[in-house]
Amino acid sequence: MSFLTIGHRGVMGVEPENTLRSFVHAERAGMDAIELDLHLSKDGALAVMHDADVDRTTDGKGPINEKTLSELRELDAGQGERVPVFEEVLDAVRSPVQAEIKDAAAARALAEVMLRRDLADRVEVSSFHDEAVAEIARLVPGVRTVLIASRWKSDVVDRAKAVGAATLALNIRRLTLEVTEQAHAEGLKVIGWVVNTQDQLRLARALRLDGATTDYPEIRRAGRFTA
């Protein structure tokens, strides 16, 4: 089975995160998929940004949901990049995409785009929130979903199964081989995040993970040779 390497917000270790520049770099580096984050703007646009506000990653201030898309467009997201919307990313790269949603409202907006552009095969949808995973699965027949967790209890595999997720994306600093084996026994894949060093890559292999999310393109190259 191949080991998947997913570019975290593009390749945020070397480019401004969640920008077209970062996504294009990730694709050119050969990442198997590109991960990004979605928030709704005040006027309902699917803005690509991790945080709920713009303070950390742009030269602006305030919550995304209090700004229109036009207002978001005026911000510098790093090295002159602008805050993209989801469909711009789809047009800028051809790679598979893993889109993280924060709530059920974002799920509904994403579902509209996925159905209109027939994206169930290309776009995998992830979330920390069980209800958001369940909502996108209800709205988009055949969509592949991922339940994310940083801290979890012994029921994390059962939670993933309950919402129909095919994959668990788990914090590698807390992952154990027992969890991986339990997930695999139930037919689930397990992705570790974030894998940014050779030691973490070796750990991912030792944990028998199906793949890893990384900030750095060189992890993709190293992953091809790490047993």
From TrEMBL:
Q: Which Pfam families match?
A: GDPD
The record's InterPro entries line, in alphabetical order, gives: GP_PDE_dom (IPR030395), PLC-like_Pdiesterase_TIM-brl (IPR017946)
Domain GP-PDE, by residue range, is 3-224
User: What protein does this entry describe?
Assistant: Glycerophosphodiester phosphodiesterase
Q: Which organism is it from?
A: Streptomyces pulveraceus
